[in-house]
Amino acid sequence: MSHITSTHYQGASFFNLVNKLRETEVSIVVNPETNLYLQGRYANINIPRGMARVNYLLKHGVNVSLGSDNVSDVVYPLGTFNMIRVMEICRTAEWNCPLKVVTENGFRTINVNPPVIKEGEKAQLVVLRHDGSSLHYMPLLVLNGRNYVINNIKPEIGTVD
């Protein structure tokens, strides 16, 4: 489940929602860049939306991770695939997200065991190739010894030797 900006519910309504999320093991992916950019946009009145209650959800057993669903598009033109930037925004916003929302919780969200840093284990890491102008459309993901890369919007898959 993504964004969940409707978690401005008060009292029992929100408590019941959190219980259902925990009991059904639904993971939440919050998008701080987009949510802060769009919050109350074009509203003539104060609309109660914005950011999910990350720390409350975590405290009550709901898995929360970070995401960014808008990359250089009309809705959010400032997106860059840079999850470090997303984490910085999350840490400076009212959430003060713990590091685990961009590390181990992301793996839980997609039902993958988190990597272990241990001698003899395969490395699982993200490498961003930077040409000096921008990071747009150039992520490289290494997962279970395989490369997953998008270069100029063309996916390529290979192995790490």
UniProtKB/TrEMBL annotation:
A GO MF term: hydrolase activity, acting on carbon-nitrogen (but not peptide) bonds, in cyclic amidines
Keyword match Acyltransferase: no
InterPro entries recorded: Amidohydro_3, Metal_Hydrolase, Metallo-hydrolase_Enzymes
Record keywords, A-Z: Hydrolase
Domain Amidohydrolase, chain residue ranges per copy: 8-133
Protein name per Swiss-Prot or TrEMBL: Amidohydrolase family protein
Source species: Sulfuracidifex metallicus DSM 6482 = JCM 9184
